[in-house]
Amino acid sequence: MYELATLDTELAAIEVVREVLVLQRRLRGGGCTGRVCLRCVRHHRDAVAKTMARGLTIDFLLPAFPTKSPNPAKVLGPLPDLAEELALRFLESLCERVAEVYPPGARIRICSDGRVFNDLIGVSDDDVTRYAHELNRMIDRIGAVHLDQYTLDDVYPGADPTRMRGALTTGRGPRPEDLRAEVRGGGDLVHMYRGITRFMLEDLSTPEYTGSRAALQRRSRELAYGVIARSRAWDELLGELFPDAVRLSIHPQPCGTRKIGLLLADTPDVWLTPWHSAAVETGEGRFTLMKRAAAEAVGARLVTARGRPSHFVLPRSPEARSPESRATAAAATAVPVPAPASIPDPRQEPRHAC
User: Fold this and answer.
1) CA distances (Å), 349 to each of 182, 198, 213, 345, in order?
2) What is the residue range of the signal peptide feature (predicted)?
């Protein structure tokens, strides 16, 4: 067991939290200030210091890496690609930096939530299984020793996926009417509701869809409630199983809440994730995330690896592009803001739509 003096523990805990918060995914207007929010440091310091005082590895929980978006205009296919690999390498490097401050180091348990709500987003259980297996192989291939994956299959081994989801939500998660009332009441949940609704609208806008835009909007809003409710149930279960873990999130978080929002990639859109986009090399080994259609629109070149699409490479010389291409590139890399008509404010929705 690793031992630190009391003062060293306090200082080391602060430094570890700072290492995480410098990569914080912030909610716009969420209250955080400065390069590293000192209020957030204070909020999470005690949980880290408690683990350090016992000389144990710091356990981080990150619900993430569920499955690829089913919309081919956003991603390269159903399996993890370079977008996920870069995110995994980033998480591994974060743990390595923590070990420089606190030798027992940290472990990030990736609590993949694909099985939790894949039936709502139009992804098969087989695709979720293949994604999770490939993610494990990727973790091994890149030599990430501080990462592991934990899924609903680990909680209910051998069970039918439908039964897993039923067991998960029995006695957990909000009641539908309570969740709708919470969203209508405003507050931080509205941001998540709107973000997930936007994802649902994009994911369901596949070439196979032949219905109206208005119908798709209504369905996306309804499914967003389901995704949030299932995610809350998964969150509660993880709290039961790992009560001492420090909680991370891929969603922007308000200041001083129990989770730290973590930015997994260099992207101008704080909601964009590796499983809703593709990795795009912008030059000199630097990458960003873009939706597949946006990358193709600016003339990015597709690169394959191990027999599968891997990532895009932007044209090297902006001067070589046409004025139209440069304009498209600027639009594609800007922060995408959904049109007000696409995702209505839930507080203004008629009651029968909620």
Assistant:
1) 13, 16, 17, 7
2) none
